[in-house]
Each structure stands twice: as C-alpha cells, then as structure tokens.
Amino acid sequence: MSTGSMEQLYQQVILDHAKFPHGKGLGAAADLHLHTGESHQVNPTCGDEVTLQVDLDDTGVVRDVRWDGQGCSISQASVSVLHDLVVGNDLATVDQLGGTFRALMQTRGNGLDDEAEDALGDATAFTGVAKYPARIKCALLGWAALTDALIKTGARENS
C-alpha cells in the first residue's frame, strides 16, 4: 500500500474512533469486587480533557475502562483505541502496550517494526501524529490518565 493511502486509512481510523468512541461514558463498576481508579487529565496546550475510570480484578486484569472527555479528534480517538487495547489484558501487557505506544510517538512518523505495530492494532493509526510534536501530547493524554488511574486502584506503586 502506498504511503498516501496508508495515511488516508490511518486518518479514517482516527475519525471513526472520534465519531464512535469505544468505552465512552463514566459510571460505577459493574462488579463491586473490582478495584476502580479514576484520573482526570488536561492538556493545557490545546484544551483536551479526559476523565478515565479503570476496573481491575484481583488477578490484575483490566476488566473495564470508562471515560469521558472533550478535545481534538486525536485525543478522543486515542482514548477509544486505548480502551480496545487494554480491556481484558493483565497489567504487564497493558504496560507493554503503553510503552510501545509511547515509543511510536517518538518515531517522528517513521513507525515501528511489524511486530510492535501488530500489537498496537488500530493505535498504529497514530503514526503520523508523531510528526507533529504539539499533537503527541494529545495522543498520550489517555495513556497518562490510565497510568494514574491504575496507581489509584492500589494495584500498583507510584513509580
């Protein structure tokens, strides 16, 4: 696939997630036995905001992510994609995904290897965002909220 058509595909993925966000809507955990953490993050540069709730079970598996927010399509789509990536995964996998996404944001738009991009799935659509330093914070906002919310569940140390 040519670079131009890949970029169009990536833009479409971001727009679809922004229009039809996955996991959007705050509320109580479905199960009282889950450990819930909540974090509100703001990107003052462009006014993006997200409040994210995460539910962990006793084995350290993310059972749900709920969120609400406002801002640019990049920030909102990124939280939607994050939701799809982390729900059902354990903390080690979530940490790995977060690290891989942060690495993608450091590539200046060059992308990662196939294995890393396969792991990221739709999150690979944010490759082009890495070309624009001012937009990287937009894409990382939800991940910052997730990291903070996981600390607040009590399941992880503040590092």
TrEMBL record:
Q: Under what name is this protein listed?
A: SUF system NifU family Fe-S cluster assembly protein
Q: Which Pfam families match?
A: NifU_N
Organism (species)? Cellulomonas humilata
| Entry-linked NCBIfam families | SUF_scaf_2
Gene3D superfamilies listed in its UniProt record? 3.90.1010.10
Q: Where is the NIF system FeS cluster assembly NifU N-terminal domain?
A: 10-138
Q: Which top-rank group of organisms is this from?
A: Bacteria
Which GO molecular-function terms appear in the entry? iron ion binding; iron-sulfur cluster binding
